[in-house]
Write a structure and sequence with these properties.
By secondary structure, the protein is mostly beta strands. It is built from no helices and 10 strands. The strands form 3 sheets. A 6-stranded antiparallel β-sheet has the order 6-3-2-1-7-8, with no helix packed on it. Strands 4-5 form a two-stranded antiparallel ribbon. It has a two-stranded antiparallel ribbon with strand order 9-10. A hairpin with a 4-residue loop joins strand 2 and strand 3. It is elongated. The mean pLDDT is about 95.
């Protein structure tokens, strides 16, 4: 079970985009995430008339390591570490480490 999932709101804690708050759009691998508007690079795209793609320089969101982001806790307004707790009915849920509240996801 991953601590950070698609759709979670995260805050960047290291790198060029430090301090930005955004949403995780996808998990690329076990350790890398795609976060909207974070780690954006300019890439040269070749035109493809069959797909209707125009050529030129396009902005592309590149993967960021999950160690460089923290889950955003709306109660405290800061980034927070994530832990796990097993409820009475046996389901495993994510909780914020600072206050023990369940992560809304």
């Amino acid at each position: 079970m991953e601590k950070i999932r698609k759709g979670d709101e995260v805050i960047v804690i290291a790198g060029r985009d430090k301090g930005k708050r955004a949403t995780v759009s996808a998990r690329v691998s076990d350790t890398h995430l795609l976060v909207d508007g974070v780690n954006v690079a300019k890439k040269h795209a070749r035109p493809n008339p069959m797909k209707g793609v125009a050529g030129g320089i396009v902005d592309k969101t590149m993967p960021i390591d999950q160690s460089n982001v923290m889950l955003f806790n709306p109660a405290t307004g800061k980034g927070d570490r994530v832990g796990f707790k097993v409820l009475e009915d046996g389901t495993k849920v994510r909780v914020y480490r600072s206050n023990g509240e369940q992560v809304k996801a």
